[in-house]
Amino acid sequence: MLFSSVGFLFRFLPIFIIIYLTFPKYRNIVLLIGSLIFYGVGEPYFVLLLLLSVAMNYGFSRYMFWEPRSPQSNRKRKAARRRKRALVLAVTLDLFILFVFKYWDFAAGSVNALAGNRFLPLLSLALPLGISFYTFQMLSYLIDCYQGTIEKRADLVSFATYVCMFPQLIAGPIVRYGEVADRMESRRVRIRDLENGLKLFALGLGLKVLLANQIGTLWNLIMTAGAGRLHPLVAWLGAFAYSFQIYFDFWGYSVMAMGLGKMLGFSIPRNFDHPYTSRSLSEFWRRWHMTLGSWFKEYVYIPLGGSRKGNGRTVCNLFVVWALTGLWHGAAWNFVLWGIVFFLLLSLEKRTYGKSLERSLVTGHIYTVLLIPVTWVIFAIPDMGQLAAYLGNMAGYHRGEILVGVPQFVRYLKEYGLLLIACVTFATPLPTKLYWKWKDRWFTVLILLGIFWWSVREIVLGSNNPFLYFRF
Amino acid sequence: MNGNKMRTFVEIIYNCPFILLVIFTSIVFVLFFDGEGNRKEEPGIAALQLITEEVKAGTGEENASKKNEIVLKREHDTKEQDKEQPGKDGDQGEETIQNAGARKEKDGKIENSQERETDTRKKESAEKQADTETRATKFVEYTPIPTDSRYYSDAGKVALTTTYDYTLENESYFNDAAFLGDSRTLGISDYAGLEGADFFCDNGMTIYKLFEDDGVTYQKTGEKVDLKEILQEKRYGKIYIMLGMNELGYGDTPMYLKQYLKVIKQIKEWQPGVIIYVMANLHVSQEKNNMETEFNNININDKNVASARLANGRDVFYLDCNPLFTDEEGYLQAELTFDGVHLYAQHYDKWRDFLFAHGVACEEIQQTEESGQTKSPSDAGESGDSVNSDDSLDS
């Protein structure tokens, strides 16, 4: 079920909230069942996979701290060994499931291509919605348990609720158990929380439906004409359009998740902090999809030694993190390439000009604003030939005469100019600042109401496309 | 106690104006729209209005909707007959059918014996006519699959480009040409390099909206113009029409055909002697083809077959560009398209060459035009009276 669908907005959400508020004692179980319905409507079979994964991981987390009767002498050593065994098994199984569903065809296809024949069969499995998100969330719980950073571990219902709760089940943010542990035990929903949560939700809905979807049509328009014979201006315009689309799409989703979380009595961490106003790519990644960035930092980069084991090792660790980040986003070579490009640029920044960029007033901004769209183009086009053609167009190279040139560029600007201005404005911190300043004023309420209904109108009229990040 | 409760109640209301406004407006929304709230809403209402208008008009001299029903019924019967006689020549047999796309049985409102009588009579006369006439547009039949949609049914055949001795032309042929269409025609305008032609097209344009007062974008200026005025003022030698994609989920195929016929009649009235090209709607790719919605090639083909019936090989021609771009199963080839609907810019030259190859010499038209006019007010409707009667109703 999509947040931006009539079914969710006018059926699931109101009914769920009423039931949720009516039974304050059974909030976890109500939330769990509600979330499973939410997930099951779209994925009637994969909901079983989700339940299986949850049960399996919960089992391992219990096994980790299972204490059989044994002589005092080697109890400690045995417990440590058991903990390790549980963690390794759980991580292996989780990654195996993820691999089979998400990466098998990609890996097998690549091997087949290398070998020149078809000795690995393709499975053509559908990708279970949100599998990358919930797998990572469960892994974070297990690793936190192993490291002992969780004070009070979850019981089965709490754990299942934590993994499955619908605001963040299918597209994050990746919440760590420690961040919601207290609220899992008991949570109060005040009327102010409902109010503010719904406001945030409306805001996120607007970002998604009114900005991301609309600007996405410009990118589609340009891609429909096809890479290869685009004027550089058009190619860049398309790259900016896609950059805005993916940002408002994902940010909008995250804001909606935060709003829903608030309505349910949680505080879901924020996932974006105006990434496009960064002055370097390192800063960009501290502000973009923050929960994923910190996941990789906490659970991959630091355990590998981070930057404390010498320069060679640091570069190596960075490479692993970015190759994995690329792969996490999708099973295709362009995602790997995308990750590697970030690895190269970030290593370069770290070693040379990063610090001075972040201190600069203008250069840093120009640097990010020009580079980010290029990276998103790599992200957006899976076909290597097309990708090369598009990047070529951006650089001013084209095969044959230009087919989409200045006249079309002018037309696009006329058609999308206002929207582009709106996108630029919302990429700056100004609108959020104003929102937090005036969120209780009557005119904000009216504006949000307008945004909400305008979004609903767009959804109903059908110019709606699903969230980009659902694919990952 | 009571006062306290009252105060908390007021406090609650004061604390959540947004929620209350959303709930209030939602109730209004629910009252004025149906629970689905999907986009079928508006077309649904429009279609309903159209039907009621028809019924109102019909109470006078002839009952239009009833007539329509009869025609549909007749087609249904003919189809069944065809099934019984597999040896029958498909091309010939199909000529009798005036109205495309049988409506689903449950949609039919009235089916009484009286209708069946007129029905059989009509069928006989239509078949007689078909025997005496051969039309220029050929159809290839196949076994239709059952569909469950209020928008379309499987036509059970594919229309081929109207048979005619076309001439090979060059760009100058298009200096007095106009193109009317949707986003695909916009693609021709942008990328086919037909500088001389006038393009009137918009994303989402439909056969129903073509002559509306909102206007259509004239691509040379980028301004909205009233097509009614343009077509009355400027004379064109040929007019290319390609519309049908945005009609896939609006009304149904008979309604589409009826409107198409109306448009063509209107154009002929304003532009005597003009050559009209009815262009097939390009199929969509396999990825985009969705049998669960109305967005699929069966529906597109249903619309195409319907519009192909309007071609007469004299001044109305049906051009099917699909063979250029589709695979054996009729899907738009995946490597030619990004979104499964529109061609990449670089492939429009193929389409242009196809248009070049389908020129109609002008003198011939003047001649046939004269003979055509004496014959019937509408060439398209001449082999059956059903569409004609609808016309008389419209005019």
Structural summary, described in words:
The complex is a heterodimer of chains A (472) and B (395). By secondary structure, chain A is an all-alpha fold. Chain A has helices spanning 6-22, 27-42, 46-64, 75-115, 131-147, 156-164, 166-169, 177-185, 191-225, 232-264, 281-287, 290-301, 311-329, 333-351, 354-359, 363-380, 384-394, 406-427, 430-438, 442-461. Chain A is built from 20 helices and no strands. Chain A is globular, with a radius of gyration of 24 Å. Mean pLDDT of chain A is 87; it is low at 463-472. With 395 residues, chain B is α/β, with parallel strands linked by helices. Chain B has a 5-stranded parallel sheet, with helices on both faces. Chain B has a two-stranded antiparallel ribbon with strand order 1-2. Classes of the chains: A mainly alpha (472), B alpha/beta (395).
In short:
With 472 residues, chain A is an all-alpha fold. Helices cover 73% and strands 0% of the residues of chain A. In chain A, helix 4 packs antiparallel against helix 5, helix 10 runs parallel beside helix 18 and helix 13 packs antiparallel against helix 14.
Oligomer: heterodimer
What Rg of chain B is obtained from the alpha carbons, in whole angstroms?
A: 24 Å
Distance between the termini of chain A: 16 Å
Largest interface (C-beta under 8 Å): A-B, 33 and 30 residues
Uncertain regions spanning at least 5 consecutive residues of chain A: 463-472
Number of helices of chain B: 14
- Name the helicity range of chain B: 40-55%
Q: List the total number of helices of chain A.
A: 20
Proportion of helical residues of chain A? over 70%
As residue ranges, the low-confidence spans of chain B are 35-117, 122-134, 364-395
Q: For the report, how would you describe the main beta sheet of chain B?
A: 5 strands, parallel
Morphology of chain B: elongated
Main structural class of chain B: alpha/beta
> Which radius of gyration of chain A do the C-alpha atoms yield?
24 Å
Q: Note the gap between the termini of chain B.
A: 74 Å
Total strands of chain A: 0
Strand content of chain B: 5-15%
What percentage of amino acids of chain A are in beta strands?
Answer: under 5%
Overall 3D form of chain A: globular
Strand element count of chain B: 9
